Amino acid sequence: MNAGIRFCLLATVAAFPFVLDAAPANSGCELKLGMIGPLSGAATSWGVALRSGAEFGAAEVNKTGGLPVGAEKCKVSVVSYDSKYTADGAAAGANYFASQNVKFIIGPVGSPEATGIKPVAQRNGQITFSTAYAKNAIEPQFPLAFHELSGPATWAPPLAKAAKEKFGFQSIVCVAPNDQGGTDIASVDAEAYRAVGIKASEEYYQRGTTNFAPIIQRILNQNPDAVDTASSPPGDAATMAKQLREAGFNGVIGRLGGPGTAEIIRAVGGVEKLGNFYWLEIVSTDDPGVKALWEEYKELMGQPAPDNTLMIPAVASSRLLLKAISKAGTIDDAAKVAEALRSLPVEDKNLGKGEWTGQKIYGINQELSFPVGMGLIINGKTVGVQKIDTVEAR
To answer: Which pLDDT tens digit goes with each residue over 100-118?
Structure first.
Protein backbone atom coordinates (compact mmCIF):
# COMPACT_ATOMS: atom_id res chain seq x y z
CA MET A 1 0.00 0.00 0.00
CA ASN A 2 1.30 3.48 -0.84
CA ALA A 3 2.75 5.47 2.02
CA GLY A 4 0.35 8.30 1.09
CA ILE A 5 -2.66 6.12 1.86
CA ARG A 6 -3.96 5.63 5.37
CA PHE A 7 -7.06 4.02 6.70
CA CYS A 8 -8.80 5.39 9.77
CA LEU A 9 -11.36 3.17 11.48
CA LEU A 10 -14.20 5.13 13.03
CA ALA A 11 -15.00 2.78 15.87
CA THR A 12 -18.11 4.65 16.96
CA VAL A 13 -19.96 3.89 13.73
CA ALA A 14 -21.71 0.52 13.66
CA ALA A 15 -21.32 0.12 9.90
CA PHE A 16 -17.53 0.63 10.15
CA PRO A 17 -17.02 3.24 7.43
CA PHE A 18 -13.46 4.32 6.83
CA VAL A 19 -11.65 7.30 5.41
CA LEU A 20 -9.03 7.12 2.71
CA ASP A 21 -6.72 10.11 2.34
CA ALA A 22 -4.84 10.19 -0.93
CA ALA A 23 -1.72 12.25 -1.55
CA PRO A 24 -1.84 15.54 0.36
CA ALA A 25 -2.70 18.80 -1.35
CA ASN A 26 -1.05 22.10 -0.56
CA SER A 27 -3.99 23.63 1.25
CA GLY A 28 -6.01 23.43 4.45
CA CYS A 29 -9.15 22.91 2.35
CA GLU A 30 -10.51 19.35 2.46
CA LEU A 31 -13.28 17.89 0.30
CA LYS A 32 -14.84 14.67 1.55
CA LEU A 33 -16.17 12.47 -1.24
CA GLY A 34 -18.57 9.82 0.01
CA MET A 35 -18.86 6.30 -1.35
CA ILE A 36 -21.76 4.07 -0.38
CA GLY A 37 -22.38 0.47 -1.41
CA PRO A 38 -22.25 -3.15 -0.25
CA LEU A 39 -18.91 -3.91 1.38
CA SER A 40 -20.10 -7.21 2.83
CA GLY A 41 -22.25 -10.06 1.52
CA ALA A 42 -22.75 -11.48 -1.99
CA ALA A 43 -22.58 -8.06 -3.67
CA THR A 44 -19.29 -7.05 -2.01
CA SER A 45 -17.34 -6.99 -5.27
CA TRP A 46 -19.68 -4.30 -6.62
CA GLY A 47 -19.13 -2.08 -3.59
CA VAL A 48 -15.36 -2.61 -3.64
CA ALA A 49 -15.27 -1.69 -7.34
CA LEU A 50 -17.24 1.50 -6.73
CA ARG A 51 -15.02 2.44 -3.80
CA SER A 52 -11.88 1.83 -5.88
CA GLY A 53 -13.18 4.12 -8.63
CA ALA A 54 -13.85 6.94 -6.17
CA GLU A 55 -10.44 6.47 -4.55
CA PHE A 56 -8.73 6.61 -7.93
CA GLY A 57 -10.57 9.79 -8.89
CA ALA A 58 -9.48 11.40 -5.63
CA ALA A 59 -5.88 10.24 -6.06
CA GLU A 60 -5.70 11.68 -9.58
CA VAL A 61 -6.70 15.11 -8.30
CA ASN A 62 -4.47 15.00 -5.23
CA LYS A 63 -1.50 14.05 -7.40
CA THR A 64 -1.79 17.45 -9.07
CA GLY A 65 -1.84 19.29 -5.74
CA GLY A 66 -5.56 19.19 -5.05
CA LEU A 67 -8.85 20.26 -6.58
CA PRO A 68 -9.10 23.96 -7.50
CA VAL A 69 -12.16 25.37 -5.73
CA GLY A 70 -12.33 29.14 -5.89
CA ALA A 71 -9.00 30.50 -4.65
CA GLU A 72 -8.05 27.26 -2.88
CA LYS A 73 -6.82 23.80 -3.77
CA CYS A 74 -8.62 21.14 -1.80
CA LYS A 75 -7.33 17.75 -0.71
CA VAL A 76 -9.90 15.08 -1.61
CA SER A 77 -10.55 12.21 0.80
CA VAL A 78 -12.94 9.29 0.33
CA VAL A 79 -15.28 8.24 3.14
CA SER A 80 -16.82 4.80 2.58
CA TYR A 81 -19.94 3.30 4.14
CA ASP A 82 -21.23 -0.28 3.96
CA SER A 83 -24.90 -0.11 3.00
CA LYS A 84 -25.17 -3.92 3.10
CA TYR A 85 -27.23 -3.64 -0.12
CA THR A 86 -30.32 -2.53 1.80
CA ALA A 87 -32.59 0.50 1.68
CA ASP A 88 -32.19 1.08 5.43
CA GLY A 89 -28.41 0.81 5.15
CA ALA A 90 -28.28 3.38 2.35
CA ALA A 91 -30.53 5.80 4.23
CA ALA A 92 -28.39 5.41 7.36
CA GLY A 93 -25.28 6.02 5.26
CA ALA A 94 -26.67 9.28 3.89
CA ASN A 95 -27.36 10.48 7.42
CA TYR A 96 -23.90 9.43 8.56
CA PHE A 97 -22.39 11.35 5.67
CA ALA A 98 -24.45 14.39 6.66
CA SER A 99 -22.92 14.22 10.13
CA GLN A 100 -19.48 14.27 8.47
CA ASN A 101 -20.41 17.18 6.15
CA VAL A 102 -20.20 14.93 3.08
CA LYS A 103 -22.24 16.51 0.29
CA PHE A 104 -21.15 14.40 -2.69
CA ILE A 105 -21.65 10.63 -2.87
CA ILE A 106 -20.52 8.02 -5.38
CA GLY A 107 -23.14 5.27 -5.12
CA PRO A 108 -25.20 3.53 -4.08
CA VAL A 109 -24.98 0.38 -6.20
CA GLY A 110 -28.37 -1.37 -6.29
CA SER A 111 -32.06 -0.62 -6.51
CA PRO A 112 -32.94 -1.23 -2.84
CA GLU A 113 -30.21 1.21 -1.83
CA ALA A 114 -31.31 3.82 -4.37
CA THR A 115 -34.87 3.63 -3.06
CA GLY A 116 -33.65 4.20 0.49
CA ILE A 117 -31.15 6.96 -0.17
CA LYS A 118 -32.95 9.28 -2.62
CA PRO A 119 -35.34 11.07 -0.21
CA VAL A 120 -32.76 11.22 2.59
CA ALA A 121 -30.00 12.60 0.37
CA GLN A 122 -32.39 15.15 -1.13
CA ARG A 123 -33.38 16.30 2.36
CA ASN A 124 -29.71 16.46 3.40
CA GLY A 125 -28.67 18.38 0.29
CA GLN A 126 -26.42 15.59 -1.06
CA ILE A 127 -25.63 14.62 -4.65
CA THR A 128 -25.67 10.87 -5.33
CA PHE A 129 -24.32 9.01 -8.37
CA SER A 130 -25.94 5.56 -8.31
CA THR A 131 -25.52 2.52 -10.55
CA ALA A 132 -29.00 1.16 -9.73
CA TYR A 133 -30.99 -0.49 -12.53
CA ALA A 134 -34.35 0.32 -10.94
CA LYS A 135 -37.06 1.65 -13.23
CA ASN A 136 -37.05 4.75 -11.01
CA ALA A 137 -33.29 4.89 -10.37
CA ILE A 138 -33.49 8.64 -10.97
CA GLU A 139 -36.64 10.78 -10.92
CA PRO A 140 -37.57 14.43 -11.57
CA GLN A 141 -38.57 14.92 -7.92
CA PHE A 142 -35.00 14.11 -6.84
CA PRO A 143 -32.85 16.58 -8.82
CA LEU A 144 -29.72 15.79 -6.79
CA ALA A 145 -29.79 12.11 -7.84
CA PHE A 146 -27.63 11.24 -10.87
CA HIS A 147 -27.00 7.93 -12.64
CA GLU A 148 -23.52 6.61 -13.49
CA LEU A 149 -24.53 4.34 -16.35
CA SER A 150 -27.32 3.25 -18.67
CA GLY A 151 -30.06 1.01 -17.30
CA PRO A 152 -31.61 -2.19 -18.72
CA ALA A 153 -34.30 -0.38 -20.71
CA THR A 154 -31.42 1.05 -22.77
CA TRP A 155 -29.12 -1.94 -23.25
CA ALA A 156 -31.37 -5.02 -22.88
CA PRO A 157 -33.10 -4.79 -26.31
CA PRO A 158 -29.93 -4.62 -28.46
CA LEU A 159 -28.12 -7.19 -26.28
CA ALA A 160 -31.02 -9.67 -26.41
CA LYS A 161 -31.07 -9.35 -30.18
CA ALA A 162 -27.29 -9.81 -30.44
CA ALA A 163 -27.36 -12.86 -28.12
CA LYS A 164 -30.07 -14.55 -30.19
CA GLU A 165 -28.14 -13.92 -33.39
CA LYS A 166 -24.94 -15.30 -31.87
CA PHE A 167 -26.26 -18.42 -30.12
CA GLY A 168 -29.63 -19.10 -31.76
CA PHE A 169 -31.49 -20.08 -28.56
CA GLN A 170 -35.30 -20.06 -28.55
CA SER A 171 -36.13 -20.18 -24.82
CA ILE A 172 -34.61 -18.64 -21.70
CA VAL A 173 -35.18 -18.35 -17.95
CA CYS A 174 -34.25 -15.04 -16.31
CA VAL A 175 -33.40 -15.46 -12.62
CA ALA A 176 -32.83 -12.77 -9.99
CA PRO A 177 -33.63 -11.81 -6.37
CA ASN A 178 -37.29 -11.16 -5.56
CA ASP A 179 -36.85 -7.50 -4.62
CA GLN A 180 -36.68 -4.34 -6.71
CA GLY A 181 -32.98 -4.95 -7.38
CA GLY A 182 -33.96 -8.15 -9.17
CA THR A 183 -37.48 -7.76 -10.52
CA ASP A 184 -36.85 -4.38 -12.17
CA ILE A 185 -34.04 -5.90 -14.23
CA ALA A 186 -35.11 -9.49 -14.91
CA SER A 187 -38.55 -8.36 -16.04
CA VAL A 188 -37.02 -5.90 -18.52
CA ASP A 189 -34.57 -8.54 -19.74
CA ALA A 190 -37.40 -11.04 -20.24
CA GLU A 191 -39.45 -8.54 -22.22
CA ALA A 192 -36.44 -7.74 -24.41
CA TYR A 193 -36.00 -11.46 -25.19
CA ARG A 194 -39.71 -11.81 -26.01
CA ALA A 195 -39.49 -8.84 -28.35
CA VAL A 196 -37.01 -10.74 -30.52
CA GLY A 197 -39.05 -13.95 -30.56
CA ILE A 198 -37.53 -15.84 -27.61
CA LYS A 199 -39.79 -17.62 -25.12
CA ALA A 200 -38.82 -16.09 -21.76
CA SER A 201 -39.87 -16.89 -18.20
CA GLU A 202 -38.77 -15.44 -14.86
CA GLU A 203 -37.65 -17.08 -11.62
CA TYR A 204 -37.07 -15.17 -8.39
CA TYR A 205 -35.39 -16.12 -5.12
CA GLN A 206 -35.07 -14.55 -1.68
CA ARG A 207 -32.04 -12.29 -1.42
CA GLY A 208 -29.54 -13.88 0.95
CA THR A 209 -30.31 -17.41 -0.25
CA THR A 210 -27.38 -19.78 0.19
CA ASN A 211 -28.98 -23.04 -1.01
CA PHE A 212 -29.71 -22.66 -4.71
CA ALA A 213 -30.55 -26.33 -5.37
CA PRO A 214 -34.35 -25.76 -5.43
CA ILE A 215 -33.97 -22.82 -7.83
CA ILE A 216 -31.68 -24.80 -10.11
CA GLN A 217 -34.21 -27.65 -10.18
CA ARG A 218 -37.07 -25.27 -11.04
CA ILE A 219 -35.00 -23.89 -13.90
CA LEU A 220 -34.07 -27.34 -15.21
CA ASN A 221 -37.70 -28.46 -15.05
CA GLN A 222 -38.48 -25.83 -17.70
CA ASN A 223 -35.84 -27.30 -20.04
CA PRO A 224 -34.69 -23.90 -21.35
CA ASP A 225 -32.09 -23.36 -24.05
CA ALA A 226 -30.49 -20.60 -21.96
CA VAL A 227 -30.43 -19.11 -18.45
CA ASP A 228 -29.84 -15.40 -17.74
CA THR A 229 -28.67 -14.58 -14.18
CA ALA A 230 -29.63 -10.94 -14.79
CA SER A 231 -28.83 -8.70 -11.80
CA SER A 232 -28.18 -11.48 -9.29
CA PRO A 233 -25.19 -10.48 -7.10
CA PRO A 234 -21.88 -11.86 -8.39
CA GLY A 235 -21.61 -14.45 -5.62
CA ASP A 236 -25.13 -15.75 -6.29
CA ALA A 237 -24.66 -15.81 -10.06
CA ALA A 238 -21.38 -17.68 -9.69
CA THR A 239 -23.00 -20.32 -7.47
CA MET A 240 -25.93 -20.76 -9.87
CA ALA A 241 -23.67 -21.08 -12.92
CA LYS A 242 -21.53 -23.66 -11.13
CA GLN A 243 -24.54 -25.69 -10.01
CA LEU A 244 -26.17 -25.50 -13.45
CA ARG A 245 -23.10 -27.01 -15.07
CA GLU A 246 -22.73 -29.62 -12.32
CA ALA A 247 -26.39 -30.59 -12.85
CA GLY A 248 -25.70 -31.27 -16.52
CA PHE A 249 -27.12 -28.09 -18.05
CA ASN A 250 -25.23 -27.62 -21.31
CA GLY A 251 -27.17 -24.66 -22.63
CA VAL A 252 -26.13 -21.05 -22.90
CA ILE A 253 -25.68 -18.96 -19.74
CA GLY A 254 -26.14 -15.21 -19.99
CA ARG A 255 -25.83 -12.24 -17.70
CA LEU A 256 -27.67 -9.09 -18.70
CA GLY A 257 -27.17 -7.33 -15.38
CA GLY A 258 -24.35 -6.29 -13.10
CA PRO A 259 -20.68 -7.10 -13.59
CA GLY A 260 -19.30 -10.32 -12.13
CA THR A 261 -17.88 -12.34 -15.03
CA ALA A 262 -14.52 -13.07 -13.39
CA GLU A 263 -16.24 -14.45 -10.29
CA ILE A 264 -18.47 -16.70 -12.40
CA ILE A 265 -15.52 -18.05 -14.40
CA ARG A 266 -13.61 -18.84 -11.19
CA ALA A 267 -16.60 -20.61 -9.61
CA VAL A 268 -17.31 -22.79 -12.64
CA GLY A 269 -13.64 -23.73 -13.01
CA GLY A 270 -12.55 -21.81 -16.08
CA VAL A 271 -13.87 -20.69 -19.44
CA GLU A 272 -13.64 -24.23 -20.84
CA LYS A 273 -16.16 -25.53 -18.31
CA LEU A 274 -18.33 -22.44 -18.63
CA GLY A 275 -18.84 -23.29 -22.31
CA ASN A 276 -21.17 -20.78 -23.98
CA PHE A 277 -21.60 -17.57 -22.02
CA TYR A 278 -22.48 -13.96 -22.84
CA TRP A 279 -22.68 -10.95 -20.60
CA LEU A 280 -23.24 -7.23 -20.43
CA GLU A 281 -20.12 -5.13 -20.17
CA ILE A 282 -21.17 -1.73 -18.90
CA VAL A 283 -18.42 -0.19 -21.03
CA SER A 284 -16.64 -1.45 -24.14
CA THR A 285 -13.74 -3.12 -22.31
CA ASP A 286 -11.75 -3.92 -25.45
CA ASP A 287 -11.44 -0.22 -26.22
CA PRO A 288 -7.79 0.93 -25.83
CA GLY A 289 -8.76 3.78 -23.51
CA VAL A 290 -10.58 1.44 -21.16
CA LYS A 291 -7.70 -1.03 -21.18
CA ALA A 292 -5.31 1.80 -20.32
CA LEU A 293 -7.31 2.63 -17.19
CA TRP A 294 -6.28 -0.62 -15.50
CA GLU A 295 -2.61 0.22 -15.98
CA GLU A 296 -3.14 3.81 -14.84
CA TYR A 297 -4.84 2.54 -11.69
CA LYS A 298 -1.98 0.15 -10.87
CA GLU A 299 0.64 2.84 -11.43
CA LEU A 300 -1.08 5.47 -9.31
CA MET A 301 -2.52 3.28 -6.55
CA GLY A 302 0.39 0.83 -6.28
CA GLN A 303 -1.82 -2.24 -6.58
CA PRO A 304 -3.99 -3.92 -9.23
CA ALA A 305 -7.49 -2.62 -9.80
CA PRO A 306 -10.37 -4.89 -8.74
CA ASP A 307 -11.48 -7.26 -11.50
CA ASN A 308 -14.99 -5.82 -11.56
CA THR A 309 -15.82 -3.34 -14.32
CA LEU A 310 -18.18 -1.35 -12.10
CA MET A 311 -15.03 0.53 -11.14
CA ILE A 312 -14.93 2.19 -14.58
CA PRO A 313 -18.15 4.24 -14.41
CA ALA A 314 -17.23 5.09 -10.82
CA VAL A 315 -13.99 6.62 -12.11
CA ALA A 316 -15.82 8.53 -14.86
CA SER A 317 -18.52 9.87 -12.53
CA SER A 318 -15.97 10.81 -9.85
CA ARG A 319 -13.95 12.76 -12.40
CA LEU A 320 -17.02 14.57 -13.71
CA LEU A 321 -18.34 15.30 -10.21
CA LEU A 322 -15.00 16.75 -9.11
CA LYS A 323 -14.87 18.85 -12.26
CA ALA A 324 -18.35 20.19 -11.49
CA ILE A 325 -17.36 21.03 -7.90
CA SER A 326 -14.41 22.97 -9.25
CA LYS A 327 -16.57 24.77 -11.80
CA ALA A 328 -19.21 25.63 -9.20
CA GLY A 329 -16.52 26.94 -6.84
CA THR A 330 -18.05 25.38 -3.74
CA ILE A 331 -17.65 22.25 -1.60
CA ASP A 332 -20.83 22.96 0.36
CA ASP A 333 -23.63 23.84 -2.08
CA ALA A 334 -24.83 20.61 -3.72
CA ALA A 335 -27.56 22.36 -5.72
CA LYS A 336 -25.02 24.68 -7.31
CA VAL A 337 -22.74 21.73 -8.10
CA ALA A 338 -25.67 19.81 -9.62
CA GLU A 339 -26.36 22.79 -11.87
CA ALA A 340 -22.71 22.78 -12.95
CA LEU A 341 -22.87 19.01 -13.58
CA ARG A 342 -25.80 19.38 -15.95
CA SER A 343 -23.90 21.97 -17.95
CA LEU A 344 -20.78 19.87 -18.44
CA PRO A 345 -20.27 17.84 -21.62
CA VAL A 346 -19.97 14.09 -21.04
CA GLU A 347 -16.42 13.22 -21.95
CA ASP A 348 -13.86 11.06 -20.19
CA LYS A 349 -10.20 10.61 -21.06
CA ASN A 350 -10.55 6.81 -20.99
CA LEU A 351 -14.14 6.31 -22.17
CA GLY A 352 -14.26 9.06 -24.78
CA LYS A 353 -17.42 11.02 -25.56
CA GLY A 354 -20.79 10.14 -24.08
CA GLU A 355 -23.98 12.05 -23.42
CA TRP A 356 -26.48 12.98 -20.78
CA THR A 357 -29.58 10.80 -21.20
CA GLY A 358 -32.54 9.68 -19.11
CA GLN A 359 -35.38 11.94 -20.21
CA LYS A 360 -37.08 9.21 -22.27
CA ILE A 361 -36.86 6.54 -19.58
CA TYR A 362 -36.81 8.41 -16.26
CA GLY A 363 -38.18 11.85 -17.09
CA ILE A 364 -34.90 13.56 -16.18
CA ASN A 365 -31.69 13.91 -18.19
CA GLN A 366 -29.20 12.97 -15.46
CA GLU A 367 -27.78 9.67 -16.66
CA LEU A 368 -24.24 9.25 -17.99
CA SER A 369 -24.37 7.20 -21.16
CA PHE A 370 -21.39 5.60 -22.93
CA PRO A 371 -21.44 2.68 -25.39
CA VAL A 372 -21.79 -0.75 -23.75
CA GLY A 373 -20.36 -4.12 -24.76
CA MET A 374 -21.35 -7.76 -24.93
CA GLY A 375 -18.70 -10.19 -23.76
CA LEU A 376 -18.60 -13.62 -25.37
CA ILE A 377 -17.27 -17.06 -24.47
CA ILE A 378 -18.07 -19.50 -27.28
CA ASN A 379 -17.46 -23.24 -26.95
CA GLY A 380 -15.16 -22.66 -23.99
CA LYS A 381 -13.04 -19.99 -25.64
CA THR A 382 -12.99 -16.29 -24.86
CA VAL A 383 -13.92 -14.36 -28.00
CA GLY A 384 -13.79 -10.82 -26.62
CA VAL A 385 -16.19 -7.92 -26.18
CA GLN A 386 -18.44 -6.75 -28.98
CA LYS A 387 -19.31 -3.04 -28.91
CA ILE A 388 -23.08 -2.52 -28.75
CA ASP A 389 -24.77 0.68 -29.89
CA THR A 390 -27.74 1.72 -27.75
CA VAL A 391 -28.77 4.86 -29.63
CA GLU A 392 -32.26 3.65 -30.58
CA ALA A 393 -33.22 2.77 -26.99
CA ARG A 394 -31.90 6.05 -25.59
So the answer is: 999 999 999 999 999 999 9
